[in-house]
């Protein structure tokens, strides 16, 4: 359950990053509201997940999902350049996220 919270929090991180861009320096009300709501949801879900997950691993997975998701949204919907290097970099980020999630962690 905690990993599901991290995944959803990472998706909200993607949404708040895109909303931040679309808010145009907080001058567009509904994108600013979207940014605030998505950021609050993302941090709240991550906080709940951190009750049972190791902070380093959970944070890395959260930021990886956010970074990869934001890059993909940028390329597919916002006109960011689509290049082989960018695609490979996103795959490397997602591979690292998966490896961290699968890595055994010491129980406390």
Automatic annotation (TrEMBL):
The keyword Cell membrane applies. The chain crosses the membrane at residues 27-50, 57-78, 84-103. It is a multi-pass membrane protein. Keywords: Cell membrane, Membrane, Transmembrane, Transmembrane helix. The keyword Cytoplasm does not apply. It is found in: Cell membrane. Its main location: membrane. Pfam families: Multi_Drug_Res. InterPro entries: EmrE-like, Small_drug/metabolite_transptr, Small_multidrug_res. Belongs to the drug/metabolite transporter (DMT) superfamily. Small multidrug resistance (SMR) (TC 2.A.7.1) family. PANTHER family: MOLECULAR CHAPERONE, SMR FAMILY PROTON-DEPENDENT DRUG EFFLUX TRANSPORTER SUGE. This is Multidrug efflux SMR transporter. It comes from Geodermatophilus maliterrae.
């Amino acid at each position: 359950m905690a990993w599901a919270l991290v995944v959803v929090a990472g998706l909200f991180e993607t949404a708040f990053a895109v909303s931040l861009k679309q808010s145009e320096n907080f001058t567009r009300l509904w994108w600013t509201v979207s940014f605030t709501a998505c950021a609050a949801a993302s941090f709240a879900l991550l906080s709940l997940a951190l009750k049972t997950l190791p902070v380093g691993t959970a944070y890395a997975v959260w930021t990886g999902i956010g970074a990869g998701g934001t890059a993909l949204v940028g390329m597919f919907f916002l006109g960011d350049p689509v290049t082989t290097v960018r695609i490979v970099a996103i795959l490397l980020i997602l591979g690292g996220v998966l490896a961290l999630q699968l890595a055994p962690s010491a129980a406390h």
